[in-house]
Amino acid sequence: MEAVKKQNVALDIKALSVYYGTHQAVKAVDMVIPKNKISALIGPSGCGKSTFLKALNRMHDVSDNRQVTGQIIYQDIDVNTDKVDQYLLRQKIGMVFQKPNPFRMSIRRNISFALERHGLKDKQLLADKVETSLKQVGLWDEVKDELDKSALALSGGQQQRLCIARVLAMEPDIILMDEPTSALDPISTGKIEETLDELKKDYTIIMVTHNLAQASRLSDYTGFFNYGELIEYDNTAKIFTDPAVELTHSYITGEFG
Ligand SMILES: Nc1ncnc2c1ncn2[C@@H]1O[C@H](COP(=O)(O)OP(=O)(O)OP(=O)(O)O)[C@@H](O)[C@H]1O
Asked: ABC transporter domain: from which residue to which, for each copy (predicted)?
């Protein structure tokens, strides 16, 4: 991949390894992730994509016999150290999971809850935040008249867009997504893809996907993982048409996986 200018780097990952006990699930990954682009992470089941993604905002509970070594440079700081407040880090590097996980609360509260806990009290500001973030995910028109209804009454696709809106309300720089559409129908998937395409103007998105067609139509860059190693990371068009490594070609063409 061509060098990325420093001001365009969202994350500079150096020799990142993750261990579950003695099992090394991620093996010394180096990766420079460009800002305001969508990067897709692909590879066969169990190759360490989710483990890698979770390490980026320190979701691994080290007390659980896990170890994460290496550096994750975000805004000139290595965030893979205990000195960094994980709570603040997760605001700046938010996460959306495979299965929509809205809080058991109203649509409005799903967005405002964390903001209120952060001390935002002004009702008008809170209302503005709810509206803006729901508009960003294209959900506002669908829910504006029922903001006090339970979020659990929404469809799966709407719930996932609400979860994305909830992350956006915290004003992150980077959004991590672990197979964000794999539990959704094709229409909801299409809406989320449209949303992500729109969001990348302002946010860096790093997304694990099993869906190669999705990676190829949506992402700017693609990283191929195998057995915990990053085999290659490059422009998506290059990975899908002319990868540097034969193994990537075999995976893309469905020879294994
Ligand atoms: N909580 C855990 N404890 C122990 N080993 C784990 C744990 N989670 C994952 N692993 C192991 O780490 C390796 C990588 O798993 P991971 O879920 O990161 O892969 P993946 O590429 O995201 O897989 P998939 O595409 O199936 O979701 C696998 O060998 C898996 O068995």
From this structure: 11-252
Ligand 1, from 17, 50, 54, 65: best to mutate by most atoms within 8 Å of Cβ? 50
Q: Delineate the domains of the chain, giving CATH numbers in brackets.
A: 9-253 (3.40.50.300)
pLDDT, one tens digit for every residue, the chain (257 residues): 889 999 999 999 999 999 999 999 999 999 999 999 999 999 999 999 999 999 999 998 767 889 999 999 999 999 999 899 998 999 999 999 999 999 999 999 999 999 999 899 999 999 999 999 999 999 999 999 999 999 999 999 999 999 999 999 999 999 999 999 998 899 999 999 999 999 999 999 999 999 999 999 999 999 999 999 999 999 999 999 999 999 999 999 998 87
How much is the ipTM here?
Answer: 0.96
Give the Å distance between the CA of 46 and the centre of ligand 1.
5
The token pair at 14 is: 């150096």
